[in-house]
């Protein structure tokens, strides 16, 4: 690829960027698109834009950039959670590093390279390393501090009181619920409060789906014949947040009723034997921490305790998986991901072929005519490869999310974080290494002959691929940023839904930020920046523009578009840190290769201590800061417990625990939410409402009074059971109107 | 090397074995050697052999073999600890596997190989794998069960109540002891009992050494002028097992005394600020477990809690190391070991040269005359290489122990276990791989060209080295076993000490079993057995003899010679398990290579699922059983706590905790023990004597009554301090008689 190819690519991408950004600044002011561009704001802050026709709306403006830049870290934290702050910090950190690197390399190394002198100074990487090192410890400490604050924030986090127990041994006689009660009253007597059984989704889901179908048919029926007051038939689920006692009583209630109503339907009987997971609630945070960290019995596969994820973060359908299976699932998905990574080399090699015009002409002779046109060859070599790679890469994220789901994580955030790691490994291997190596080694079908030659091989290979990487920054970086800000998919979806299907606005659907694709993307660009900085410093200005643009765009998106339902609590930072260390060591190995090629043993000698120091620094961070990302310090939790006890808030928190985790609560389908059947019973008497953001669905349910019998609203449960039965019967009889 | 060389070697070694074993059976009956051959028995069981001159004493006999075989596992456990049982199990397991493998391979594969047919059945490795797998899970479960029993054994283990705290932050005003008190009374109020500061060895050791020197001079003085009643001047150390309160009072006592006696000597003032480690005692085992497993504060390098080792197992001089240093020490020793491993290749290559006679004659032409004699060449090629390797290998264990010490383990057993791992890696790399590869690949200075070729390379290389490995089994296995049973070094030491130096018998010195050299040795033979079983099955009978002989010899030694002062609690088993899995996978990879060479793709195809199954099996064991070797299950500890509380034994245990850990107690020098200065004060009033086996030294101290002031025997402390001062002054004035 020539410099003209590069310029073509740059031209197209800059044009696209300018176009998209201008379009965005206009489209965001249109009231019709408000749900696309301000989803988070509408869902969480309930403010609406004024609908007035003014000319201003059709003039591109830069106000949004100013707004995105003005937002402080505290505001970002409040609006989009800790993960957003971490992501923001990754961008800030990249900007800092590469500003300096660009300055040094463009004015230091580039002229040297250009004028063909063979002198390389070890000074430059070492200095940038120093700055990086100091900066990074600060960043790491800052994130760790934020994470601690996140734990100790004002509103009590109910998940701190909760432990997820899996691998409950099957008792022959007593029910699972009794077994849990027995175990924890014996071994955690002083701190155990109560527990909540997680049911197999299949079992209850079957009832719910049946009820949903029946409801749909019923609704269709009522829509045509009866008026809308019929909605009053919907109740809320009796399964949510009930304590262990209430479940037993429910069963007794069922048995009492067996004679009267036809509750013989086996699908209704929730078999306690089949429970695979239980949420156990403790009196204090510290007690829950202790229970979650300690090996409970002499069989490490039984009574497995883990810290519970936050209520909105629970991935319910995975909770039911037998704990014994999980390690096999993990190995299987690992193998699956590796095979996928290797298979993906095929399109990558094809792309490499594209950027080498001569090879392409040889292989596909019928293209010769087209390719001989000057403009076409520039387009093919300069732009097409990275577009094709981009299209293939779009399949990666969904597949990795699928792999991560199969792995069996217990929370949405863990699933996303696991997918993020997979996508990152994938990107580094298939975009970076496969491209670097296929240009030189793999394409010649000769393998690495010796580990000693790797630095030299890399040093030879990278300059050859530098122009490809620059176009990659342009397409995958700039252009995808501007399409991100445009929300092309959301815009079209909204348009089709509103004006073609004429459906109501989908108020519930506000997407979460796709950390699993964006973090690896930024990290890959960081890797490209580090490794190319010495050999092809021309990439740095392009990268710097990308990081600046990304800083503005992502802040804007986090503040306006995406909604934070769950949060890993900054767990993306260790991933970013490790990737930066990897990039740095790789860069230093490449430097070693360069100095080897230039036959400068002194400079090469200076590089080895640099590598050792980098690794030592990494080890220090692992020892000093990483444990904070894995567990919570006891001191902080004990202090919080005491503070709550002193202020008398503890009782209120214990009450709220009863309704903290609700299994059949946030199904994706709206009709299901409308027939939620409520039984927030247990021994508290007052259900204080859900603490998450779904107020809308709650309003549609009919609130009943709470007559409690033995601390349990038995009438309500009976009522709820009857209503399910009614709906199921409706479905069975095929009431199709 | 020809078959004649092999026979020479076998002849020499069998001769040595028979000679040594016969000598042993005679020597063990001589009363003069009773301390060499029955060290453990005398030290622990206090029984002596009758001294009567009968002819029977000079006739070789086999009674000891019968005795060694008759001993049950329970007796072994009682006499030599869990590690001995684990070691015994490793041998039993090896015998089982290799009996079967020998049967199959010698009668199955050997004739096939000999008659030159190319048919290999995948049946054999797969069957032996199956038997291995089932057997090994049983073994692993058995060891895990023994470990649990070991924890819950009848005599309460005081270390279960104790947590070692390191990384205590330096407070500006208050003393370290106060800081510990404050922290644990705030955050572990319900379970914290008291603590004990560990002092820098340098500080106190200086005083002790000074006192010791003074005592020596003093003793010399008294030996010539005064009678032996002067011994009454010796007191016991006031630093052992004192509670936190007693230390403060000691200091106050010192300040009160400052005017009267000249205690200005700065070396006497134990600066609390310098304490780096503290033993913290808890009310229950469970509380100690919780405290040791949980991250205490938001700085993971401060208030680091670890389960305390057993009192006799504490490696006091390492406790004082600053916790911040440890990770650097670990990395440094890792690098050191790797460098040593690589440097060791030089003698190994030299040895390989020896076994290839032609190369040797080329390199050292002056040896040509000698080497042309037939007998000499057989000796050089058949026997010399493994003897030289053996001599070099003798330097490895002490060096690895040194590395492990530098690493900073807190217990003797951990130090030995760490050394065991290092020696194992070293042996596998330098004896197995270096020998296999230097014969083919390294000597031709061509490196591994591709990972795909490794199985084939190994399959080619191993038959070439099989005869060397057989001679290695003969020298390093058979001969070293018989010299082990002879205790050549101990015998000579005892003889010199008794008859030449005319010193008293050293009653204290009874060695511990050298697990760090013996476990790797047995594992290496296992590896040789697995890898050679398909290609050179002739090695198996030799190995089988080794394992049988080892079974008898090691049981005899464990029962009679070595004393178990400390125990890892079966932690050698996971090491053995991992090594066996590694050997098995390596064998299967070699099979893959063999089938590749023989061009049998079906058989090779059958081997790959075998490898996967082996790895899955390993993963299962890691999940199911390994956690039990890392931490204790809460259930068992809680049950033990309750049992002790019910039976009222808890108070007694709490009393005993005061004297559990004594820092200046088991110094290697005997004179030091005689001037131990006692202050087992604190708030218990009655010091119930030490719980370990050192009764002799205790008798020499003068017991004082216990007049306690504020729960502290202040008169005694004053007395002790005065006596130290006296001794130090004695030394300073140079009282040389």
From TrEMBL, chains A, B:
Keywords: Ion channel, Ion transport, Membrane, Transmembrane, Transmembrane helix, Transport. The chain crosses the membrane at residues 7-27, 90-115, 331-351, 383-403, 423-448, 522-551, 571-595, 602-620. Residues 6-145 form the CSC1/OSCA1-like N-terminal transmembrane domain. Residues 680-708 are annotated as: Disordered. InterPro entries: Csc1-like, CSC1/OSCA1-like_7TM, CSC1/OSCA1-like_cyt, CSC1/OSCA1-like_N. It comes from the Eukaryota. Belongs to the CSC1 (TC 1.A.17) family. This is CSC1/OSCA1-like 7TM region domain-containing protein. It comes from Leersia perrieri.
């Amino acid at each position: 690829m020539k410099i003209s190819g590069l310029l073509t690519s740059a031209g197209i991408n800059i044009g696209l960027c300018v176009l998209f950004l201008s379009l965005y600044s206009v489209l965001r002011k249109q009231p019709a698109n408000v749900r696309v561009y301000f989803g988070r704001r509408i869902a969480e802050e309930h403010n609406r834009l004024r609908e007035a026709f003014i000319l201003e709306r059709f003039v591109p403006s830069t106000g949004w950039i100013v707004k995105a830049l003005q937002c402080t870290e505290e505001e970002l934290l409040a609006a989009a959670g800790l993960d957003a702050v971490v992501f923001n910090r990754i961008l800030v950190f990249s900007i800092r590093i590469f500003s300096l690197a660009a300055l040094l390399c463009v004015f230091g190394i580039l002229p040297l390279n250009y004028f063909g002198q063979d002198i390389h100074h070890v000074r430059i990487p070492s200095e940038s390393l120093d700055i990086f090192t100091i900066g990074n410890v600060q960043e790491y400490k800052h994130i760790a501090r934020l994470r601690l604050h996140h734990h100790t924030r004002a509103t009590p986090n109910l998940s701190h009181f909760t432990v997820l127990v899996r691998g409950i041994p099957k008792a022959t006689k007593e029910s699972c619920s009794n077994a849990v009660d027995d175990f924890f009253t014996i071994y955690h007597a002083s701190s155990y409060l109560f527990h909540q059984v997680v049911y197999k989704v299949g079992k209850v889901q079957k009832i719910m789906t049946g009820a949903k179908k029946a409801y749909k048919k019923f609704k269709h029926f009522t829509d045509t014949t009866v008026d809308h007051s019929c909605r009053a038939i919907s109740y809320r689920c009796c399964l949510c947040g009930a304590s262990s006692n209430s479940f037993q009583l429910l069963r007794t209630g069922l048995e009492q009723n067996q004679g009267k109503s036809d509750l013989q339907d086996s699908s209704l009987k929730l078999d306690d034997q089949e429970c695979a997971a239980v949420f156990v609630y403790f009196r204090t945070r510290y007690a829950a921490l202790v229970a979650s960290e300690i090996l409970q019995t002499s069989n490490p596969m039984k009574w497995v305790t883990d810290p519970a994820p936050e209520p909105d973060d629970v991935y319910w359908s995975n909770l039911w998986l037998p704990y014994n299976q999980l390690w096999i699932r993990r190995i299987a998905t690992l193998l699956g991901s590796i095979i996928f990574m290797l298979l993906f080399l095929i399109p990558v090699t094809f792309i490499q072929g594209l950027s080498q015009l001569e090879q392409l002409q040889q292989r596909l002779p019928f293209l010769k005519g087209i390719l001989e046109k000057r403009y076409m060859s520039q387009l093919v070599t300069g732009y097409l490869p990275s577009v094709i790679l981009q299209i293939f890469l779009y399949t990666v994220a969904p597949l990795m999310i699928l792999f991560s789901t199969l792995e069996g994580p217990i929370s949405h955030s863990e699933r996303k974080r696991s997918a993020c790691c997979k996508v990152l490994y994938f990107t580094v291997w298939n975009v970076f290494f496969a491209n670097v190596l296929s240009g030189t080694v793999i394409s010649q079908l000769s393998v690495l002959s010796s580990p000693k030659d790797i630095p030299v091989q890399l040093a030879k290979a990278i300059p050859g691929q530098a122009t490809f990487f620059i176009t990659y920054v342009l397409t995958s970086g700039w252009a995808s940023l501007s399409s991100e800000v445009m929300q092309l998919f959301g815009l079209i979806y909204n348009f089709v839904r509103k004006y073609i299907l004429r459906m109501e606005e989908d108020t519930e659907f506000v997407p979460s930020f796709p950390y699993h694709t964006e973090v690896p993307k930024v990290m890959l660009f960081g890797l490209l920046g580090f490794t190319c900085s010495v050999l092809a410093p021309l990439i740095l200005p392009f990268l710097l523009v990308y990081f600046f643009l990304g800083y503005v765009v992502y802040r804007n998106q986090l503040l306006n578009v995406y909604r934070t339902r769950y949060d890993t609590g900054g767990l993306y930072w260790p991933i970013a840190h490790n990737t930066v260390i990897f990039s740095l060591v790789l860069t230093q190995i490449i430097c070693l290769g360069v100095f080897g090629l230039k036959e400068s043993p002194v400079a090469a000698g200076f590089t080895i201590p640099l590598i050792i120091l980098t690794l030592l620094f990494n080890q220090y961070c692992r020892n000093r800061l990483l444990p904070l990302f894995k567990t919570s310090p006891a001191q902080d939790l004990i202090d919080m417990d005491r503070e709550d006890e002193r202020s008398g808030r503890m009782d209120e928190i214990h009450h709220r625990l009863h309704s903290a985790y609700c299994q059949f609560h946030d199904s994706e389908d709206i009709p299901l939410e409308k027939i939620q059947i409520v039984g927030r019973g247990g021994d508290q008497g007052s259900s204080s409402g859900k603490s998450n953001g779904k107020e809308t669905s709650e309003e549609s349910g009919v609130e009943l009074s709470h007559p409690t019998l033995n601390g349990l609203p038995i009438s309500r449960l009976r009522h709820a059971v009857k209503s399910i039965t009614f709906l199921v019967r409706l479905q069975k009889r095929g009431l199709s109107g």
